[in-house]
Amino acid sequence: MARTSGRQSAALDRTLSALADPHRRRVVELLGERSRPAGELAKLVGLSAPAMSRHLRTLRTSGLVRESHPDFDARVRIYELQPAPMRELKAWLEQSERMWTEQLMAFKRYVEGIKDEEA
Questions:
Q1: Phi-psi region of 66 (alpha: psi -120 to 50; beta: other; left: phi over 0)
Q2: What mean pLDDT is predicted for residues 94-104?
């Protein structure tokens, strides 16, 4: 399996850490549908505004979401999903899957070779 660079590894660590919380995963699912204001996310996830703010800060820091303000009201924060961290996570998972598939196939060949020798 090809190794990730230090910078890629740090970014992947931030993504995995952010996704470790079920509330943040739910926010990512909701933002996968469309951009949403912070208040709507808090309501849909069932969290208080301060709790949602902490989760959104973590998601912003990880690069998973981006915050913007509509021109009509700077107090409103709109969040949208950023695809790059999820693409990097998907690529890492696919790479890991290939490595494990190769390992399991090698193990299968080894076990079948032992069985053939015993027969």
A1: beta
A2: 90
CA distances from 48 to 19, 70, 103, 118 (A): 19, 22, 46, 65
CA dihedral 51, 57, 59, 65 (to 10 degrees): 120
Q: What are the tokens at 117?
A: 């020798």
Residue whose pair of structure tokens reads 């399996």 in the numeric block:
1
Domain that holds residue 113: 6-118
Q: Could you tell me where the DSSP H helices lie in 1-119?
A: 6-19, 22-33, 38-45, 49-62, 83-118
Task: State the CATH number of the domain containing residue 90.
Answer: 1.10.10.10
Question: Does 1 have pLDDT greater than 60?
Answer: no
